């Protein structure tokens, strides 16, 4: 029992972050993110970059994610807002040097303020998990399900989901990260954020796929249903390889486990870079 609990205590110690509502779901408003950045001492020039980093919408390489639009309310009669915003962002690339990250972020946010719609500073929106948080969720789930370190590693290496324990670990991961519930199924609003956006046709395809999966899966097999919905209906379209973040914990069986993470977020490939070092 002591060794088993060490898994949970170790992964909880890996990272501390704000969780809202339930499980490991994180939600923030732009107003709260702004206050957070001010408390960090962010300069006015770099405030937009800080805020969009907090909401995980800013990437130093590709810039502002399109799912940043969730913080805005467009005019329903304005059919050109997305096009105008995109053209504004493209123009910014030719006028601001790539290394001027704060100015790029500020200009990108200004494009949304000027072109997309009315900004909503008060409503909390879903924030996708960082890789280290995803690692934490996986290992917490393994501990909660009573898996040993070896069992968790075998599950992660089970790319075809052939083992029931793999499917149950995956279901726990989806639930704990806020992407799925047994009652409501896939949370498409949150997958929209996690996947970096998708078009209406994809949403319709997922709806049709989910109906097929539910009709062909035993209703009492909750683990298989969750795994199939995510991997078959979401994962076939949006591949997103996570950057491994190595860490070492003591597994239930006493082994020292150096791990990265599922290289997936929403039902994508489960390749891994795990090493099990026996003492």
TrEMBL record:
The lineage of its organism: Eukaryota, Metazoa, Ecdysozoa, Arthropoda, Hexapoda. Its main location: secreted. Belongs to the PBP/GOBP family. GO terms for biological process: sensory perception of smell. SUPFAM superfamilies: Insect pheromone/odorant-binding proteins. PROSITE patterns: PROKAR_LIPOPROTEIN (PS51257). One of its GO terms (cellular component) is extracellular space. It is found in: Secreted. Keywords: Disulfide bond, Secreted, Signal. Residues 1-20 form the signal peptide. This is AAEL000833-PA. The keyword Lyase does not apply. One of its GO terms (molecular function) is odorant binding.
């Amino acid at each position: 029992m002591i060794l088993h609990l060490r898994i949970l205590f170790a992964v909880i110690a890996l990272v501390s972050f704000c969780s809202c509502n339930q499980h490991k779901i994180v939600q923030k408003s732009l107003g709260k993110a702004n206050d957070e950045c001010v408390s960090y001492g962010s300069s006015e020039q770099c405030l937009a970059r800080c805020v969009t980093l907090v909401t995980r919408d800013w990437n130093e390489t590709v810039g502002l994610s399109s799912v940043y639009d969730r913080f805005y309310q467009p005019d329903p009669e304005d059919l050109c807002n997305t096009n105008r915003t995109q053209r504004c962002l493209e123009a910014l690339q030719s006028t601001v040097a790539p290394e001027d990250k704060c100015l790029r972020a500020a200009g990108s946010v200004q494009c949304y303020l000027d072109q997309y719609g009315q900004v909503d500073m008060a409503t909390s929106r879903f924030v996708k998990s960082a890789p280290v948080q995803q690692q934490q969720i996986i290992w917490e789930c393994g501990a909660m399900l009573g898996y040993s370190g070896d069992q968790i590693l075998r599950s992660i290496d089970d790319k075809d989901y052939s083992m029931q324990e793999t499917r149950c670990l995956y279901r726990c991961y989806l639930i704990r990260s806020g992407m799925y519930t047994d009652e409501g199924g896939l949370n498409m609003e949150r997958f929209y954020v996690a996947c970096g956006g998708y078009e209406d046709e994809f949403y319709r395809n997922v709806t049709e796929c989910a109906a097929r999966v539910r009709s062909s899966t035993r209703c009492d097999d909750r683990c298989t249903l969750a795994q199939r919905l995510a991997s078959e209906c979401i994962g076939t379209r949006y591949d997103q390889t996570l950057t491994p973040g190595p860490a070492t914990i003591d597994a239930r069986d006493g082994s020292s486990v150096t791990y990265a993470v599922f290289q997936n977020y929403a039902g994508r490939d489960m390749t891994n870079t795990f090493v099990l070092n026996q003492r």
